[in-house]
Amino acid sequence: MDALVPVQSAGQRLPLRLLSPSLHRCIGSVSIRRSVSGFAMDTRISSRSPSQFTIRSQQSDLKESLGGVASSSDVRIKEWEVDMYQNELAISQGIRIRRKPPSKAPLGYSGPFELRLLNGQVADSPSNILEEITWYKDHEVSRMKELNPLEALKKAVENAPPTRDFVGALRSAHQRTGFPGLIAEVKKASPSRGILKENFDPVEIAQAYERGGAACLSVLTDQKYFKGGFENLEAIRSAGVKCPLLCKEFVVDPWQIYYARAKGADAVLLIAAILTDLEITYLLKLSKKLGLAALVEVHDEREMGRVLGIEGIELVGINNRSLETFKVDISNTKKLLEGEHGRQIREKDMIVVGESGLFTPDDIAYVQAAGVKAVLVGESIVKQNDPEKGIAGLFGRNISQT
Ligand SMILES: O=P(O)(O)OC[C@@H](O)[C@@H](O)c1c[nH]c2ccccc12
Predict the structure, then answer these.
(1) Which is the catalytic residue, given 64, 131, 297, 379?
(2) Range(s) for CATH 3.20.20.70 in the chain?
(3) Under DSSP, is residue 363 helix (H, G, I), strand (E, B) or coil?
(4) Mean pLDDT calculated for residue range 99-118
(5) Are strands 194-195 and 216-220 parallel, antiparallel or unpaired?
(6) pLDDT tier at 295 (50, 70, 90 boundaries)?
(7) For 213-254, what is each residue's pLDDT tens digit?
(8) Which residues form a coiled coil (predicted)?
(9) Cβ(384)–Cβ(355) below 8 Å
(10) Beta partners for residue 185, in sequence order
(11) Domain spanning 154-395 has what CATH number?
(12) pTM for the whole thing?
């Protein structure tokens, strides 16, 4: 991808070679190009003039960029089309979560896409909590980007201390203890459980987890739904906690990967239920480039099949909680590790993380027998007065020095 594509006006056709074959039918504007590698791109209307716009790829490291001139309403229409294509592309991969509300269409626009895409989906309210979070996140990220432009973030990342080896820490904890490596979660609240801990001191909890033998920590950074924050990630890191840190976010934009890295993360979460294969591939590459591990989360067989088709994934999380219905069932981990999928995972030597709903030594033994080498645990340990003891209770013995 070394193309520099001149764009005179929105609506101009772009060279076929830049488009995915399945999207040839969509040719007709720069926006389509954006929806293909699209996620990789960032649209900005330049401050010099509202009728001037540049679309710069976040893959600018790969020297691709688009630039052009159009009216700002053209740009809005094109952006809306991109969003709709994003939804379409996702639907074609069996993803039910829509990334944008369907009626974000600019006022007065009634092209063929609007008719097609709104058909049967006229309501503009999210169909479940994951969709709601995703829509809100999109909104939040665009605001945060204004305050922290990518260029500045890249500089911060260049000067940031090196990352710690998240995957290595899990593997060595597994070898050391004979139990799945523990990713202990620093989580104040969740939409399904409400407030988990009133007097929540993230640094104290993180230090207790570390003393208790956690291999890594997961820190919720979502503010609105989980009462977390990036300040928690930063505080834990600067308090000298050595466990590698997973930034627990709903990543819908590459900007968030840079941000997580700048704020002290060693790993990021990529949720297959909200990301297309292309997005996962791109975000995975970007994470690696920045020295971050990526935990790719699935919650059903279809998502597992999808991620097994993507090169370079080392860590797969199986969430026992549906983020759409909140239903928790730890046999999900077992189910997804059976048969052909399990075989492929073993062949590729991937680390599987059993996530959510783990409370007792029996639960740990159950998911371990199913094939996980790591577990991600929040509620059962964060709720304890002493989270360090909570870990010993969860495993049935002290895992800090075995
Ligand atoms: O508190 P629990 O049931 O132990 O679950 C922890 C973790 O798996 C859960 O918080 C989680 C898994 N995937 C997520 C994605 C986003 C937010 C949260 C999550």
Answers:
(1) 297
(2) 154-395
(3) helix
(4) 51
(5) unpaired
(6) very high
(7) 999 999 999 999 999 999 999 999 999 999 999 999 999 999
(8) none
(9) no
(10) 218
(11) 3.20.20.70
(12) 0.79
